Amino acid sequence: MTEGTRWQFVGFIAVLVILYFLLRVGLGLGALAPDLLVVALLLAARRMRAGWAAGLGFALGLLDGAAHPQTMGAGAIALCALGYLGARSREALAGDGPVLLALYLFAGKWLYDLVVYLLLMSDHLSGPLSMLVLGSPLAALYAAAAGLAAAAAYRAVA
Amino acid sequence: MLMPEVYKDGLGHALRASVLRPFTAVQRGSADRAGRYADAAALRAERDSLASFLVGQATLAAENRELRQLLGFRPRLTYSFAAAEATPLAGPGSAGVYRLSAGRRDGVGEGAPVITAEGLAGQVGQLGTESSTMLAWTHPNFRVSVMTLDGETYGVAEPLQGERGNELMLGFSPVAFHTAPDTGTLIVTSGDGGVYPRGIPVGKVAASGTDPDGWQRIYYVRPLVSPAQLGHVLVLGAPVPAASDQDLASAWGVRLTAPARADTAPALSPDAATPAAPRTAPRPAAPRPRPRPRQVDPTPELPGRPVFPGQPRVPEGLPAPTNPGGGAARDTSRGA
Questions:
Q1: Nearest CB to B15: which of A26, A63, A125?
Q2: Which residue of B209, B234, B247, B260 has the smallest Cβ count within 10 Å?
Q3: B278-297: buried (b, 16+ CB within 10 Å) or exposed (e) per residue?
């Protein structure tokens, strides 16, 4: 994701975030819409420094928490950690190929779900374990596919 | 989490009212549109049923008002409500949480009960100006005080998962061993705690068991409201004085046989000759045959004579129209 100017990339991330809230909050599609917020953060983290990525994750987490009050706090912490790890992952995962990107997005989304699940366990709000074992991989797969498509569209435009 | 509730609510409300405002506006608009494209035939049938029900109840309401005046009863309370669309939230920790398209602006209050045509659906969680969240009965934090129609068994119902296969049900406990509601017994809200009004149907007893300590029974209640069918809901508002029943059971065609709590006790005038006898406490459960819950037919008999297709409808007191063919039409309002 090194294509395009800085502002083009910022616009791309903003579009993903707006799309996420439009689909999930505005149109109420729920799980039918991919988790573009996590995708946006993971893609942004690949071009940001770790501290800034963590800050972006925290801000996005607060926004998401306002829309989904039951995960407020837990979502912010999880996205903050995810942004940091996403930025640091460049050291281990060099390259920008589609397979690597898909794996990165899949692992990131699943990790996010896992962290939120663990954080919500203390309040007994995490739900059944089957959600994490069966539902989360599917959601991660969906997010990875959507992220790949979005990245391809960005590359075509930028 | 890691943040006091008051700050969390304040921050969430501020973000929803500023950055997320366009999205909540779109959500409200899309919910309105979805309601506009609802099945018109089903809505018409519902409206007709309600109209016939109201016509049948009109005389009863008037009689009830007069009798209550004669007995010196104060007017009972009824509840206002706000209609809303419920859409499920997605993501981890969102199980049993729905977004309602009505908020404080529509008269929705914090913690207000949410009902559907079948019965109790949940409770308002976080309240916003234009929208709010609802904790459905499937939410882990949901609790409701319930009872049987005869009032012999009281308890608290809470969601259980995994104890009855994969079916999500409510657990009705603690229930003493000497009371035993049959399978299929209707469970309604008891009104204890003041969160839910009395008489809202919650579910039916599906099975029974004992708690881990073995001292109490636990009843598995299959709720009447399916989470998959949650779409249009009603949010109950504050009670307002009116000449109707405070027990909401009658709205579902159910009659409570449990003694009412002291909410509409007759007002004693200072010059009353004989003071009213103190209300007797409900009898403790005893091994006597329990009265079966009575179901009231929700489609009462309509007043007046039936009119058959093809027959002209002639109002009372008017002459019968003459047949252009020469013969006189039958006056159906006066009989054959």
A1: A63
A2: B209
A3: eeeeeeeeeeeebeebeeee
